[in-house]
């Protein structure tokens, strides 16, 4: 390495990059496309991070409508179909006297997806228009949605357990409805959107602007 | 001293030797930049093999048994996704991937990389295994599955008599071992061992790691 990294300054100012896989430091002018140590592809920032995030957020936001309007589970009881959307499922949980479970399901399948879309939209907009928001607060928001993101799969697991339990019996049967597929796609797209978003862009814009 | 570029905010930090119970945090964004592990590769391999052995009974044996009309039916973890693979493939594949494929692949890749380091054998594709491990950690959702079992149990209690099956105990054991492995797996430590070996063999490599 021709020059040594200086403490307390960002790497991009010093012309350095870290390999995302092996964390080795190299100069991005000398090694523009691959890491000299582990030979994996490398770039200073994640490629097309904002475009990909936008595409995934918009997809998720569109899919959120069928996910909430169409039935997520269909309960077949005595030959009649009882479809349940996310909201009717939660309200029936409250009616049957399980407010605790209702809160868990409400957070996992309604609040978390919407919160993820809103926070990612806010951070992406603030990078795009160079708003002067607090960098650490934006990073904490991103970390929070990264952490809670996987808990929205909870509802899918519950559907899979419920349908497996009931379809073994004769009287009742539960199977996923149209809304379940849309809901799955919402979760997958938001999970990918959180991962493709490059948090280093938050600092890049504040330094330049 | 080791130079590290924070992957969240691109800040350069020089960190001293980190003892086993400590982590290094970034000076600008306070995220963990370096983590050491409590377990050495042989211990990690032992834990992974334990978890892989428990996987089979945890996935195949019944988690919940339902007693309805004098018939007792057990439901295993893999019954759910297999049940609606044809009617709703998106949900089935997502559930199957997050609950079965990702955890097993994660354990296999950690076991394989630990074994490679243990017997001092460094194949050319080992960096790819490290990369796979890092990607899979986000998709292994056994903890979410645990909560969804509890949610399903409390929902099902309204319909019929419920018994916890033998698979449930295996699943709890699997979850505990899996959490121990994920909490203590240190990508940085494995890379350090990999680089040390690399430097011994290719001293001409002029990069600072």
Percent helix of chain B: 55-70%
Number of helical regions of chain A: 7
Radius of gyration of chain A: 22 Å
Taking all Cα atoms into account, the compactness measure Rg of chain B is 21 Å
The domain count of chain A comes to: 2
CATH class of the largest domain in chain A: Mainly Alpha
Structural class of chain A: mainly alpha
Low-confidence stretches of chain A: none
Work out the number of β strands of chain B: 7
Helix share, percent of chain A: 55-70%
As for the number of domains of chain B, it is 2
Helices and strands in order, then pairings?
The complex is a heterodimer of chains A (209) and B (209).
Chain A: E1 16-18, E2 25-27, H1 49-69, E3 73-77, E4 80-84, H2 86-95, H3 99-128, H4 135-148, H5 154-168, E5 172-176, H6 178-196, H7 200-208
Antiparallel strand pairs in A: 1-2, 3-4, 3-5
Helix pairs in contact in A: 1-3, 1-6, 2-3, 3-4, 3-6, 3-7
Chain B: E1 2-5, E2 12-15, E3 23-25, E4 32-35, H1 41-60, E5 62-68, E6 71-76, H2 79-83, H3 89-118, H4 126-136, H5 142-156, E7 161-164, H6 166-184, H7 187-201
Antiparallel strand pairs in B: 1-2, 3-4, 5-6, 5-7
Helix pairs in contact in B: 1-3, 1-6, 3-4
How would you explain this protein's 3D organization?
The complex is a heterodimer of chains A (209) and B (209). With 209 residues, chain A is mostly helical. Helices cover 56% and strands 10% of the residues of chain A. Chain A has two domains: 1-44, no CATH class; 49-208, Butyryl-CoA Dehydrogenase, subunit A, domain 3, CATH 1.20.140. A three-stranded antiparallel β-sheet of chain A has the order 4-3-5. In chain A, strands 1-2 form a two-stranded antiparallel sheet. The N and C termini of chain B lie close together (10 Å). The longest helix of chain B has 30 residues, at 89-118. The model of chain B has no long low-confidence stretch (mean pLDDT 83). Chain B is 55% helix and 15% strand. In chain B, helix 1 runs antiparallel to helix 3, helix 1 (41-60) packs antiparallel against helix 6 and helix 3 crosses helix 4. Chain B has two domains: 1-36, no CATH class; 38-201, no CATH class. Chain B has 209 residues and is of the alpha+beta class. At the A-B interface, strand 1, helix 3, helix 4, helix 5 and strand 5 of A face strand 1, strand 2, strand 5, strand 6 and helix 2 of B.
């Amino acid at each position: 390495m021709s020059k040594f990294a200086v403490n307390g300054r960002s790497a991009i100012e010093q012309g350095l990059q870290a390999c995302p896989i092996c964390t080795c430091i190299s100069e991005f002018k000398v090694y523009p496309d691959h890491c000299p140590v582990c030979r994996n592809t490398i770039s200073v920032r994640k490629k097309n991070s904002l475009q990909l995030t936008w595409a995934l957020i918009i997809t998720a936001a569109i899919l959120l409508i069928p996910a909430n309007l169409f039935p997520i589970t269909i309960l077949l009881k005595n030959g009649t179909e009882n479809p349940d959307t996310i909201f009717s499922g939660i309200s029936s949980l409250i009616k049957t006297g399980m407010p605790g479970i209702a809160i868990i399901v409400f957070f996992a399948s309604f609040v978390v997806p919407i919160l993820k879309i809103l926070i990612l939209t806010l951070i992406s907009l603030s990078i795009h228009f160079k708003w002067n928001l607090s960098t650490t607060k934006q990073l904490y928001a991103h970390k929070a949605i990264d952490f809670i993101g996987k808990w929205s799969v909870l509802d899918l697991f519950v559907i899979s357990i419920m349908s497996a339990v009931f379809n073994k019996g004769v009287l009742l049967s539960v199977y996923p409805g149209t809304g379940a597929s849309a809901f799955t796609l919402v979760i997958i797209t938001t999970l990918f959107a959180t991962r493709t978003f490059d948090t280093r862009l938050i600092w890049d814009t504040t330094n330049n602007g | 001293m080791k130079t590290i570029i924070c992957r969240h905010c691109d800040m350069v930090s020089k960190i001293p030797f980190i003892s086993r119970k400590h982590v290094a945090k970034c000076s600008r964004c306070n995220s963990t930049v370096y983590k050491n592990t409590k377990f050495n590769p042989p211990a990690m391999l032992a834990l992974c093999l334990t978890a892989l052995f428990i996987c089979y009974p945890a996935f195949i044996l019944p988690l919940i048994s339902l007693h309805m009309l004098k018939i007792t039916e057990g439901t295993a973890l893999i019954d759910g996704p297999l049940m609606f693979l044809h009617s709703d493939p998106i949900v089935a594949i997502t559930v199957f991937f997050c609950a079965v494929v990702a955890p097993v692949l994660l354990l296999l890749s950690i076991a394989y990389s630990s074994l490679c380091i243990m017997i001092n054998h460094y194949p050319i594709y080992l960096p790819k295994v490290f990369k796979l491990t890092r990607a899979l950690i986000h998709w292994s959702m056994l903890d979410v599955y645990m909560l969804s079992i509890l949610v399903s149990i409390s929902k099902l209690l309204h319909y019929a008599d419920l018994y916890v099956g033998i698979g449930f105990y295996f699943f709890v054991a699997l979850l505990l071992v899996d959490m121990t492995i994920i909490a203590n797996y240190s990508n940085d430590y494995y890379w350090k061992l990999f680089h040390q070996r690399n430097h011994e063999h290719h001293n001409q490599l002029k990069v600072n790691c």
